[in-house]
Each structure stands twice: as structure tokens, then as C-alpha cells.
Amino acid sequence: MTGFLKGSATAMITPFMKDGVNFDAFASLMEYQAAGGTDALVILGTTGEPATMQEEEKAALMRFSVEKNAGRMKIIFGVGSNSTETAVKAARRAEDLGADGVLAVTPYYNKCTQRGLYEYYKAVCGAVSVPVIAYNVPGRTGVNLLPETAAAIAGLKNLAGIKEASGNMAQVMETLRLTRGKCDIYSGEDALNLPILCAGGTAVISVVSNLAPRGVKALCTAVETGDLTYARTVSDALLPLANACFCEVNPIPVKAGANLLGFEAGLPRAPLTPIEPAHFEALKAAMRNYGLEVKE
Description:
single chain; alpha/beta; TIM Barrel; 8-stranded parallel beta barrel; globular
């Protein structure tokens, strides 16, 4: 299927306190995204640290976000797992709790075959009626969703799109070629947002938009309206900030950035560690240079 997601989606961080999720901070982050023109929120994806969250915490965040959003932005919940059965159950729960769609990362650690990837997405798509987004990020999962397999899963009735974060632009181009008219492709790597959109991607699922939602939305709008000169200007301004957000493994830097904006995002959960001092200073400088108001 096509047409589910256009424009800017933010891969949301999950703010934590010592004893759980900071729901007040998450509400403030949601309002910041709505004010910035964000089209969709991707919650409990990689940036949201679901690997270190309890199932009750995930369910509570799902309920809270749907209620707080009140239909303003699309809500997409991360449901992927290295167990197909677990992913199917998570997708059903997300649908039951009001998700507009779900994001299913490729199974990690198991390193399944391409046939295994097809069967995994067939099972997830068959378990729910909401749109399903496949997520290819081989640097984290150890398995790469190849273009031919992407074309195969694109034929599943509610496979809405593929979030591409392989970092291989040649592969992205081949995936675009093989899936056009079957499902959409979304940029999952901020450094490649501009070229993927220009090549036919319909949306971005962005980390840096946690900090700069207006800029990411402006980039998407500029490409959609054909103003590529302005799109390049916006992209050039965003890139140093995006690079700073990946100076350490995501979401360590972007959570630090959210704290600098005053959102009480807290620290990442172990085994992730607080940002290193030198990287923290570089992040602050990048945020200031972009024009964000940094709170010491």
C-alpha cells in the first residue's frame, strides 16, 4: 500500500526518571513536535530505548501518547522483535491501544535469511489491519533487508513503507526502483534525508527532529513543493546538528540535546551511558550554531 505517511515523522526519545517514564516530559515533547509541524510520532522505536523498558512501561506510554495526542499527529508504535511471535503480539497490542500504524524492525541477533525476513513481515502484517512499516537498520540488527526482499514484502496488503537506514544509497535507489507504486520508502538516516526524498522517498523518520522539528518539516515541504534550492539550504543547516546527534550511539546525544532544551529527558538507560564531556560541548555548539536556545 502507498500513501500512509508523508512529510516529517520524529523518532521520539523516551524521557526517564529514576523510577520510570517521565510522562510530563513526554507530554511537553509531544507539544513541541505538534508546534513544529511534525506529521507523525514514532514511539518506542530505537530512539525510544524499548530494549530496556518493561512491557508495562511500553503499554502505559502507548496509552498516554494516544490520549495526549488527541488525533493531531499520526501515532506509530515500534513493535519489532527477534521473535516473530513477540512481534505479532506487540503489533496486536499497539493496534488495540489506538496506533495509526506500527514499525517493525528486522529481527536482530538471530540473523535470519531473506526468506525469514519475508515470513516475519508476512506474519506481522497478517496479524493487524493497521499499516505496517518495515525498518531496515543492518548496523544494529546484523541483517540487511535486500531490495529484492523489500519488493516481495511490498506486496503484502498493509505493508505501508520501508524505513531505510542501511546507509547504502545505491541499495536505497534499487529498493526505490523495485517498490515504486507498491509501498513507500522513508528515510531513516538524517544525513541522507535530502537525497532519499529527492529520489522518491515520501517521508523521513528523523532523530534530529526531536531537537529541530520545524527544520525537518521545512526540508520535507521544500522537496514536496519542488523548491530544491531552499531544500538544500535547509539540509545544509541541519547536517551539522544531525551529525552531532550521532557523535555517540543514538539516543545518547539527542537525549542530552533535549535536556539542553529544557525537556527533562533524563539519562539513557544502562548499558547506554551519559554523553562524554567533549561530545557534550560539541553538541551544545552545534545546537547554538543552528539557532536553538540552549539552557545550561
